Amino acid sequence: MVYDCPNLVAHIFQLKKQELLDYIYKHGVFGHAVAYVYTIEFQKRRLPHMHCLIFLKESFKLLTPDAINSCIWACWLDPVTQPLLFETVKKCMVHGSYGALNPRSPCMADSKCSKGYPKAFQEFTTMDGHDYPLYNQPDDERAYE
Questions:
Q1: Does residue 106 share a domain with residue 74?
Q2: Which of 44, 79, 114, 131 is the S-S candidate for 109 at Cβ 3.0 to 4.6 Å?
Q3: What is the pLDDT of residue 54?
Q4: What pLDDT shows up at residue 38?
Q5: What is the pLDDT of residue 2?
Q6: In 19-78, which ranges are E strands?
Q7: Measured between alpha carbons, how far is 43 from 2 in angstroms, rounded to an integer?
């Protein structure tokens, strides 16, 4: 298994992390970034992941629903036109089973998901009053395991 080679995992993770930060900071994929800070954590299977906070120049900040929608999606991709991206999102970015299907899930607290899943469907991206976005999550009646 991949986690049996921690030196290889750490090396590849470092390369991918640096490439991502270069896209953000040097190439300006989100606009002009003035600073960033990150922390790296290791999951239970010793696999690393990164939490990154990016500070954008004032004119590039995502302050409106349209600006947020330009770079963040909270809906299923089309498995026919974007099969690789669809499979990657389905495998890596979807909250797993919990509740009656998996009562021992680490996110369970008081018989519900402590992370607030499942999120309610929402037709439009809005701001919650504290400038925190509530993403467009349309009910397109598509469901996947």
A1: yes
A2: 114
A3: 94
A4: 96
A5: 66
A6: 33-42, 48-56
A7: 13
Specify whether 67 is located in the same domain as 106.
yes
How many CB atoms neighbour CB 61 within 10 A? Answer: 13
DSSP alpha helix (H) spans, 22-142: 65-69, 83-92
pLDDT score, position 3: 64
Residue 86's CB is within 10 A of a number of other CB atoms, namely: 16
pTM, two decimal places: 0.68
Same-domain pairing of 51 and 69: no
Ranges of residues in the chain with a pLDDT under 70 are: 1-3, 45, 96, 98-99
Q: How far apart are CA 137 and CA 123, in angstroms?
A: 6
Q: What is the helix (H) or strand (E) element at residue 21, kind and residue range?
A: helix 6-21
- The predicted pLDDT at position 15 comes to 97
Q: Which domain holds residue 111?
A: 63-145
Number of domains the chain contains: 2
What confidence score (pLDDT) does residue 79 get?
92
Closest among 9, 16, 25 to 60, alpha carbons compared: 25
What pLDDT is recorded for position 138?
86
State the DSSP string of 67-86: HHHTT---SPPPTTTSHHHH
